[in-house]
Request: fold
Amino acid sequence: MNLVLGATGNNGGEVVRVLKSMQQPVRAIVRDPAKAKGLAGSGVEVVAGDLAEPASLEKAFAGGSSLFLLGPVAPNQGELELDALRVARAAGLRRVVKLSAIGSDPLARGHFSRSHGIVEAALQASGLGWTIVRGAFFYSNLLFAADAIKKFGAYAGHWGKSAAAWVDTADLAEVCARCLVEPGHAGAILTATGPAAFTNDELCALLSQELGKPVKYSDQSPDAHEKMLLTNGAPAWYTKAEIALGDVVKSGVAREVTNTVARVTGHPPRTLAEYVRAHAAAFR
Reply:
């Protein structure tokens, strides 16, 4: 039985969808099963389980074999995932697939990189079977900037001319799903990207071409970008974590483009242009 945490979220939901299409048994673990009725059926079992309450995971994990691990974006994301690993080990799960991120490092200053890095290290030392999938920047993150692109033709960032690889969450989920069920990926650290890396200027050029209207990149200082995020209602911890991602990009580690999606799934990754084309209404 494949266990999927956060099955109503963007990533967990995609993993459930892929496993279902592969006709693999799935147990979708959600905080409120009443809100996940649409997932049930066709080989998908929906059960209650809350990362904030490890005791609730004991029943949810019982009889499982593989676990997709990703906690919610939160100040204590790392702690929540470590609690899940403790329960997974006690339950005797055979494999954990951890969705992580490019730049993960337990000694990183940035919250996201550090949290993912700590959990990666704990998983590798846990005695559990494991695969780590490090994702590039999500195409879907562009939707957070959709209003500014739509109303003002503007996209703001804070890492200058540095390039970063991007990926479609559907491709990323398929890599994770295959790692759950295919033993050949055990003990691997995989970096999953789309077919290209972009500077923000190049990103805006692509947006302009696909949307048929000019989209201009505004490069901000980290302080100015942090202030903008706070003004738009982002919590302070998140703004600092977001700013720290700029250091990851500027270090050059985020520019690597890999063939992981094609090698693991058997098909090429979706391009950013294809994604923008499919979601053009959100940006126009």
